[in-house]
């Protein structure tokens, strides 16, 4: 059969009628009264937009991971926040919250400023009115609103309060969909989270690190010879740190990660002396070699050693970490999910770090809820190195029969189990949301425990204030 091109032009009315007759009904597209009211090009653009909207809607719905066997809500339903329950946890220097919803789903979160619990409690209460009635499934949106609607940008008090509610919203969203939070963040990039221990002596290294199966650790070099450091130090003082680190390195052997915690407690000249003196023991990293406010100087110091600097536990926004990375002041980032603004901001910092080929070494000294939240982020990112483990250094008082552990005993119903220095996702973090539930006796277990206060640090030689 032969075909030929039609030579007779089709008029606009015929063309419009043909499209009207054969086109599917798209949302937002209505038949026109006049054939000349809309051109062919405009009509096709409008139709494409309508179809694109439908497809985008379908993609967004389909993109949400859902485990229908465990999901507590329909993915399309709003889940409105009805109130917050704030639980000070003095034994961990922290604050847990419960976020209640009209769907009956409760999310838990944690945010803190150690030694400033009442201040952060007040900040959380100030955030609560905004949250009431909002959809808990939109943590990233609410993070932006809470942070940016404050005319004066908040620092650690606001970001810690924000972290508590952000973690709780992610927990609710995971429970509603029946999946772990790391699935909502793009899925796991690893099947276990490497953790490191901490010890301050050879004996502690033997009993608190090696005996518990860790294959990595850090030890602090804050003071020796019975005092804190001065601006520039003598060989006798520096040798005190050398003796300690040498003994620990000989115990753990060369096939073991050994980080050096400096905690920003040294003046730059003394810090550089310590860094150079400890290089023969091949440290895993130097943590907070100086206070982070002087990033240009930290960057200059970083160029004078082949071993990486780690810092960030006191930094609380992606913008602060941007400045750190741009300066080249550290190669390992240590944000704390309970300070930096929750899961939303921790993930943002990790993405920023990836662009600079920097690795994440998350800080986690406080509670097990934040520990869980941080591990979900660690499970989902490519540039994770290792994770700190919460301590129990603030426990004083409370019921004498209550036993606690860094893995969550007496805080969550099912404490984490560490295997050869790792938290394996399966069995620990693979439940919906955070995958943990608070211990039913938590509030009773906390009775009688006073709020922790930061120790004051003074120079023994002249009584002046020293950095902590």
TrEMBL record:
InterPro entries: DgoD-like, Enolase-like_C_sf, Enolase-like_N, Enolase_C-like, Mandelate_racemase_C, Mandelate_racemase_N_dom. Its EC number is 4.2.1.6. The keyword Lyase applies. Residues 198-308 form the Mandelate racemase/muconate lactonizing enzyme C-terminal domain. It is an enzyme of class 4 (lyase). SMART domains: MR_MLE. It comes from the Bacteria. Keywords: Lyase. One of its GO terms (molecular function) is galactonate dehydratase activity. This is Galactonate dehydratase. It comes from Terriglobus albidus. The gene is dgoD.
């Amino acid at each position: 059969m032969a075909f030929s091109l039609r030579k007779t032009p089709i008029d606009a009315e015929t063309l419009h009628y043909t499209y009207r007759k054969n086109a599917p009904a798209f949302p937002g597209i209505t038949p026109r009264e006049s054939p000349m009211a809309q051109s062919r090009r405009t009509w096709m653009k409008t139709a494409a937009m309508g179809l694109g909207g439908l497809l985008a809607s379908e993609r967004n719905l389909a993109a949400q991971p859902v485990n229908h066997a465990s999901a507590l809500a329909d993915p399309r339903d709003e889940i409105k926040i009805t109130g917050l329950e704030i639980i000070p946890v003095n034994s961990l220097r922290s604050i847990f919250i419960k976020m209640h919803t009209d769907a009956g789903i409760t999310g838990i979160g944690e945010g803190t400023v150690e030694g400033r619990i009442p201040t952060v409690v007040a900040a959380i209460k100030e955030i609560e009115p905004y949250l009431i009635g909002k959809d808990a499934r939109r943590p990233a949106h609410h993070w932006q609103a809470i942070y940016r609607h404050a005319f004066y940008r908040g620092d650690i008090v606001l970001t810690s309060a924000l972290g508590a509610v952000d973690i709780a919203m992610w927990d609710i969203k995971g429970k509603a969909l029946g999946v772990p939070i790391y699935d909502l963040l793009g899925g796991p990039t690893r099947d276990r989270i490497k953790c490191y221990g901490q010890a301050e002596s050879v004996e502690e290294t033997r009993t608190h690190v090696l005996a518990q199966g860790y294959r990595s650790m850090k030890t602090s070099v804050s003071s020796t010879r019975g005092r804190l450091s001065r601006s520039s130090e003598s060989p006798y003082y520096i040798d005190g740190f050398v003796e300690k680190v040498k003994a620990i390195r000989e115990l753990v052997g060369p096939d073991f990660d050994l980080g050096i915690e400096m905690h920003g407690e040294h003046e730059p000249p003394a810090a550089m002396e310590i860094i150079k003196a400890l290089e023969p023991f091949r440290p895993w990293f130097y943590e907070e070699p100086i206070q982070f406010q002087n990033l240009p100087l930290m960057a200059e110091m970083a160029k004078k050693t082949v071993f990486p600097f780690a810092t960030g536990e006191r930094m609380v926004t992606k913008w602060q970490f941007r400045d750190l990375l741009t300066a080249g002041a550290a190669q390992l980032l240590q944000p704390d999910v309970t300070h930096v603004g929750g899961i939303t901001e921790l993930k943002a910092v990790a993405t920023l770090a990836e662009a600079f080929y920097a690795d994440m070494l998350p800080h986690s000294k406080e509670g097990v809820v934040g520990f869980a939240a941080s591990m979900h982020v660690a499970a989902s990112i490519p540039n994770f190195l290792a994770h700190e483990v919460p301590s129990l250094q603030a426990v004083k008082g409370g019921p004498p029969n209550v036993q606690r552990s860094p893995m969550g005993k007496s805080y969550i119903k099912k404490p984490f189990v560490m295997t050869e220095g790792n938290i394996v996702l399966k069995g620990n973090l693979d439940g919906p949301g955070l995958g943990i539930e608070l211990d039913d006796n938590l509030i009773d277990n906390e009775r009688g425990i006073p709020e922790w206060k930061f120790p004051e640090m003074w120079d023994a030689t002249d009584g002046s204030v020293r950095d902590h």
